[in-house]
Hints:
Number of strands: 2
Helix content: 40-55%
Shape: elongated
Oligomer: single chain
Structural class: mainly alpha
Order of helices and strands: EEHHHHHHHHHHHHHHHHHH
Number of helices: 18
Amino acid sequence: MTTTGSGSVRRLRPYFWETFSPGQPYAARDIAALRAGVGREPGAVRGMRRLYRAQVFDEDRAAGQESAGLAAEHVALTLFGVHQQGRPRSVHRAGAGLGAACRVLRGCGQVSPIAVDRRMEALAGSLSSEELAHHLRPLVQLLRGAGIGLDYTRLLFDVRAWQQTEAEQNRRVRAWGLQYRDLARTDPGAPGPHLGASGEECSYWERYTPGASRAAAELAALRAGADREAGTVPAMWNLYRAEVSPYEQSTGALGSRLVAEHMVLVLFGLHQHGRRKVMHLPGMGLGTACGRLRDSGRGSAEGLERRFGNVLTAVDGHELGRHVRGLVSLLRVVDQPLDYSLLERDLLNWDVPGKQAAIRSRWDRTFHFTGSPSR
Length: 375
């Protein structure tokens, strides 16, 4: 609904795809008009004009003043036309986000999973709404061939994000990634989490094997996540295991579990880079590891004390992660490993009222007493 200048409320009509039925009068003509709009300017195809919800005026188009909303709706309409061609029922599926639809496509057996991964990576790396539309078209054609539907209203707002802020783009990319890997565990048929020898779910650093065929590429992906928001690096999507809420997966909202895991994955990637020895060691807390670095005689003990003090006085998790990264770079030089599972829990709890003081006290105590490894 929208409010007119007189204060009255006017209900907006639905988008074309929300009420479309292949059996309705002129359905074939309308779909042909949408397909004719591919690669054309919004409003340029007369047969499409009555199908827009946004109004199209010749004088605006001539002056190059089409609204951002109209441009996004044009992309969604033309993609719907490509997707709907020859299908016996509407391909618009309310609630089926792009990431979820592509997850089904990846597992349907008709398309190479690697090919879908690469198309999703290209899509997430789009720098403009025009490039986004270019990458969406072949994906939609694959979805059509596999008989998989898509929520076109949601897709419309995905396209709009590329006309808005970087933060909004990041949110949409994160939603695609969470849906694509189903970190909310909403699909019983989706591949499950990685399990360790005990049968329990395990993190990437717990299952990392130096020399494995994908190890170098995966570590490079982790390092690429430095200074990037969690969930916005497609090459990292398959390396997360943090369980998120259905709301976070649907909307791309940034949750604390994903943030903590992302931060630790990046730190592990930086720490493990170029090292044959695994840099994750259960039981080796941050304080103990840094105490052993001090006792090694490598580097300035005074400088290390200062860096460790910055960690202990960090105000929030973001500042903490920045200071821990500096310590990890020093630990890497002397091949000193660290318990990354424990670090993940500590980072997750740093902003929890009542828990920060206990973590700070433990780190401070174990830093100044470096006997056996301590949590």
